[in-house]
C-alpha cells in the first residue's frame, strides 16, 4: 500500500464560553485535521489540538510544518508505521501535536487495513471508560455552581482548575466542597501556576476534602520540586506538562517525583510514543490517566481507543468536547452521561461531517 495524497484542514470549533486555566484563556478550538489517502482506497483521519501555552505550537505553525511532513509521506507504505513516524520525528522533533495528527491517521489506516477497531489492533479489549468533567478558573460561586451541576448529572469525579493564589484557590475549593457530597472526589490541576511554597500551603490544607490527586502543581521543569511536594504533603502528585515523551517518564520514575502520569496524544506525538510512556509507568507500578486538550470527538475517540487498549490507564479525562458549541464528528465515541462507549468498527471509527469540512480551509499535497 502506498500513500498517494494528504489533505490538511484548518479545523475550527467554537466554544460555548472561553476556557480559563492558570496559563491563559482560549476562546475557540483552533485544531487541525489530517486526511491520508492511499492507492488501496483506504483513508486515515487524524486530529491535533495545538494548545500553544503547553506544546508551543499553534494551528498556523502546525499546518505549515504539516505541509512539509505530508511531502515526506507521499509514496511511503502507511502500514510501516514506525518507519513513517521515525521519518516525521527526524524532520520535526518539535510540534508534538502536529505529529500526533499524522500518527493518528496512520494508526486509523493500519487498523482499517487489518479490519479491526483501533483498540483491538493495539491488543486491547473494548471497555467502558468513565470520564470526569473539568471546572475552569472562575469566581468561587460560579465554580461551585458548575460542581453542583456536574454532580447532579451523575459525575463521579470533578476536576478543578486552580493555580492562582493560595487564598483564592482555597476559597474556590472550600465553596465547591460545600455544595457536593463528600464521596465525590475532587481532582486538582494547577497547570504549573504555583511555586513550591504556594503548592505546599494549598496541598497541606486539604486533609478532609477528598482530593484524589493534584496535577502539575509547579513548573514543568522543576522535577526536584515535584518530588519534594510528594514527600511533604499527603496529596498524590500527577505529572502532566512534565511528561511529553518516554524520556520524561523515565526521569520522573527515576527521581520518584510523581505518583501518576497524564498521557495526552497531543503531547506525546501520538499513540506510538504514548504506548512507550505507559510501558515505562506500568513497569514502575505507576498508573496513568488519559487526558486531552480541546479536541473534537475524532481525536477524543483515538485517545479512548488507546486508553482502552492498556489496563494501566486507569483514570480518564476526556471531556474536551463538552465545552464545544458544535460537534461536527460522525461516528466515534458515545457519551452516556460520563460513560464512554468506543465504536466497534475498523480503525478509529470517526470522521468529520463533509458538510462541515466544505467550509474549512484546506490544502492538498500529493
Ligand atoms: Mg493538566
TrEMBL record:
<dbReference type="InterPro" id="IPR036849">
    <property type="entry name" value="Enolase-like_C_sf"/>
</dbReference>
<keyword id="KW-0413">Isomerase</keyword>
<keyword id="KW-0479">Metal-binding</keyword>
<dbReference type="InterPro" id="IPR029065">
    <property type="entry name" value="Enolase_C-like"/>
</dbReference>
<dbReference type="InterPro" id="IPR029017">
    <property type="entry name" value="Enolase-like_N"/>
</dbReference>
<protein>
    <recommendedName>
        <fullName>Dipeptide epimerase</fullName>
        <ecNumber>5.1.1.-</ecNumber>
    </recommendedName>
</protein>
<dbReference type="InterPro" id="IPR013341">
    <property type="entry name" value="Mandelate_racemase_N_dom"/>
</dbReference>
<dbReference type="Pfam" id="PF13378">
    <property type="entry name" value="MR_MLE_C"/>
</dbReference>
<dbReference type="InterPro" id="IPR034603">
    <property type="entry name" value="Dipeptide_epimerase"/>
</dbReference>
<keyword id="KW-0460">Magnesium</keyword>
<dbReference type="InterPro" id="IPR013342">
    <property type="entry name" value="Mandelate_racemase_C"/>
</dbReference>
<feature type="domain" description="Mandelate racemase/muconate lactonizing enzyme C-terminal">
    <location>
        <begin position="140"/>
        <end position="236"/>
    </location>
</feature>
<dbReference type="Pfam" id="PF02746">
    <property type="entry name" value="MR_MLE_N"/>
</dbReference>
<comment type="similarity">
    <text>Belongs to the mandelate racemase/muconate lactonizing enzyme family.</text>
</comment>
Amino acid at each position: 500500500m502506498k500513500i498517494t495524497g494528504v489533505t490538511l484542514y484548518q479545523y475550527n470549533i467554537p466554544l460555548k464560553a472561553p476556557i480559563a486555566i492558570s496559563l491563559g484563556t482560549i476562546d475557540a478550538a483552533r485544531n487541525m485535521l489530517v486526511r491520508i489517502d492511499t492507492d488501496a482506497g483506504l483513508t486515515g483521519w487524524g486530529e491535533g489540538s495545538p494548545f500553544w501555552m503547553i506544546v508551543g505550537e499553534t494551528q498556523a505553525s502546525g499546518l505549515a510544518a504539516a505541509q512539509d511532513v505530508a511531502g515526506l509521506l507521499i509514496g511511503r507504505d502507511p502500514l510501516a508505521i514506525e518507519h513513517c513516524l521515525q521519518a516525521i520525528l527526524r524532520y520535526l522533533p518539535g510540534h508534538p501535536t502536529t505529529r500526533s495528527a499524522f500518527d493518528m491517521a496512520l494508526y486509523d489506516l493500519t487498523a482499517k487495513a487489518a479490519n479491526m477497531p483501533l483498540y483491538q489492533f493495539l491488543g486491547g479489549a473494548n471497555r467502558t471508560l468513565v470520564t470526569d468533567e473539568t471546572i475552569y478558573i472562575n469566581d468561587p460561586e460560579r465554580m461551585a455552581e458548575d460542581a453542583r451541576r456536574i454532580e447532579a448529572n451523575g459525575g463521579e469525579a470533578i476536576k478543578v482548575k486552580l493555580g492562582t493564589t493560595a487564598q483564592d484557590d482555597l476559597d474556590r475549593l472550600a465553596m465547591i466542597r460545600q455544595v457536593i457530597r463528600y464521596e465525590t472526589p475532587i481532582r486538582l490541576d494547577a497547570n504549573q501556576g504555583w511555586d513550591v511554597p504556594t503548592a505546599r500551603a494549598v496541598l497541606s490544607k486539604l486533609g478532609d476534602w477528598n482530593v484524589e490527586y493534584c496535577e502539575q502543581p509547579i513548573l514543568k521543569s522543576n522535577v526536584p520540586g515535584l518530588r519534594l511536594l510528594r514527600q511533604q504533603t499527603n496529596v498524590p502528585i500527577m505529572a502532566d506538562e512534565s511528561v511529553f515523551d518516554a524520556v520524561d517518564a523515565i526521569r520522573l520514575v527515576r527521581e520518584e517525583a510523581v505518583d501518576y502520569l497524564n498521557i495526552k496524544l497531543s503531547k506525546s506525538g501520538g499513540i506510538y510514543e504514548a504506548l512507550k510512556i505507559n510501558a515505562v509507568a506500568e513497569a514502575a507500578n505507576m498508573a496513568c490517566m488519559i487526558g486531552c486538550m480541546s479536541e473534537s470527538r475524532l481525536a477524543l475517540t483515538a485517545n479512548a481507543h488507546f486508553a482502552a487498549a492498556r489496563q494501566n490507564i486507569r483514570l480518564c479525562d476526556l471531556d474536551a468536547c463538552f465545552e464545544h458549541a458544535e460537534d461536527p464528528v460522525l461516528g466515534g465515541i458515545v457519551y452516556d452521561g460520563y460513560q464512554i462507549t468506543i465504536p466497534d468498527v475498523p480503525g478509529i471509527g470517526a470522521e468529520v461531517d463533509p458538510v462541515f469540512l466544505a467550509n474549512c480551509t484546506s490544502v492538498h499535497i500529493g
